[in-house]
Amino acid sequence: MNKIKNDYDLQRKSGILLHPTSLPGKHGIGDLGKEAFEFIDFLKNSGQTLWQVLPLGPTGYGDSPYASFSTHGGNPFIISPEILIEQGYLNKTDLKDEPVFDQSKIDFGKFIPWKKNLLNKAAIEFQKRSGNDRDFKHFCREEAHWLDEYSIFMAVKEHFDEKARNEGVDGAMWSNYWDKDIALKEPKALKKWSEKLHLPIEINRILQFFFFQQWLKIKKYANDKGIQIIGDIPIFVAADSCDVWSNRELFLLHKDGSPSSVAGVPPDYFSETGQLWGNPLYDWKAMEKNNFKWWIERIRGTLKLVDIIRVDHFRGFEAFWQVPAGNTTAVDGRWVKAAGKKLFTQVQKILGSLPILAEDLGYITEEVYDLRDTFKFPGMRILQFAFDEAEGDSGLDPANIFLPHNYIPNSVVYTGTHDNSTMKGWLNSCSHEEMDYIREYTGYTGDDLVWEFIRMALSSVSSYCIIPMQDFLELDDSARMNIPSTLGGNWTWRYTGDMINSELTERILKWTQLYGR
């Protein structure tokens, strides 16, 4: 069967949204071992050609992949211990003291100290046996533009984090707790700390080598089976990150490195006080002066790990909500123009036309649509928003852009995203009016509404269709991945191997083929 193409030459494809931490396995968190390869086999057998993985970076406060210590680095916690055993950097006996983990939920408090000790042991063994490994040396040279400063940052951070714990200090970051000279990256301080923390710095380099080595094998396995990987670029970066520490001149900061203003979104239908995210904001004028080099390197680096990029909070490239630092709500902010058009023009000039998807949700203006359409980036359509009264004036309205009859081919349809309820959880919370509207719109009178929504997504004209794994498994909100603007309990869900069977695989395959994906 010939694949149907739309005006922008995107083929009709479908895939699954699943962060690697949600993969099954024995060691407390989904990792890059055999279960990742088995998931790719499942994608292939069910006819899927896309895997959306969300950000892959090293996580910090809140365990969110959207608050990473580095825009270039990988998350060491998803390195597979089994592969390190096969390579000889760990022994099976190293796992004998492994805690008993709940296989359906990540307990970060229990998991992180154990995994960190295990990885450090493997890295030290690697250094003893293979420190002059040719591939490792090549990796360090190729990635030196971010790896050197990241490795120093993480080693110094670990030193001061331990000091803060011993002193009972909460909220310690490089800008408010480190010694001033190293916080400001003074050359003498860099030299002093590089010598003092030589081993931890080298361990951080080795762990990044392990991650890249394991992940790129997974990516090749997926690509060889005709599966493309979609990864995220969060528009903003964490304040307590190597990116801000290393590039203070590119952010709106005070002289001590603390933000002078922060990101958020204004008051709206959902929140009278808006959302205060707290990320430092870019100095777009400074970025323009060096031809957006930081962004170009960030995008170039991301495309080493994934095939397609989903840009999170795309509207922030047209204008962003700027809130003075220290405010407790986002009420007293203002819209400030960004340099999105100049940025993406320069990106295309240097890197060529790129496979970028725009997360164009939230408060969107004509200027945002113009920016998206100028570069022909596909936007997003969320089926839950089509029937949700909480969408305000657009809810229960035939003009609602999230209803399938209003879709355009150059778009990506989701039943929901990692920030939404699961489909089953959302349906369980629907009002009688919403449920009547769903029945009237779909003409469906059966009891399997989750799969009716999956059918709507697959049958739509959107070129790409992405279904969260939880929806294929018909799980309720106990499997929800993230509740925005909350801390604790997020990013913990995992599926177990027994949830996938031939019946599910064949059902997905049948519907995928039926709708030409």
Key features of this structure:
TIM Barrel, globular, disordered N terminus, eight-stranded parallel sheet, four-stranded antiparallel sheet, single chain, alpha/beta, 517 residues
- The neighbouring-strand order within the major sheet is 9-6-3-2-1-12-11-10
Shape-level CATH architecture = Alpha-Beta Barrel
CATH class: Alpha Beta
- What summary fits the major beta sheet? 8 strands, parallel
| Overall tally of domains | 1
SSE layout:
Blueprint: E1 13-17, H1 34-45, E2 50-52, H2 81-86, H3 108-130, H4 134-142, H5 144-167, H6 180-183, H7 187-196, H8 198-224, E3 228-233, H9 242-246, E4 261-265, E5 275-280, H10 284-289, H11 293-305, E6 308-311, E7 319-324, E8 334-337, H12 340-351, E9 356-358, H13 366-374, E10 379-382, H14 383-386, E11 411-414, H15 423-429, H16 432-442, H17 449-459, E12 464-468, H18 469-472, H19 502-514
Parallel strand pairs: 1-2, 1-12, 2-3, 3-6, 6-9, 10-11, 11-12
Antiparallel strand pairs: 4-5, 4-7, 7-8
Structure description:
Helix 3 (108-130) crosses helix 8 and helix 5 packs across helix 8. It is built from 19 helices and 12 strands. The protein is globular. It has one domain (13-514): TIM Barrel (Alpha-Beta Barrel). By secondary structure, the chain is an alpha/beta fold.
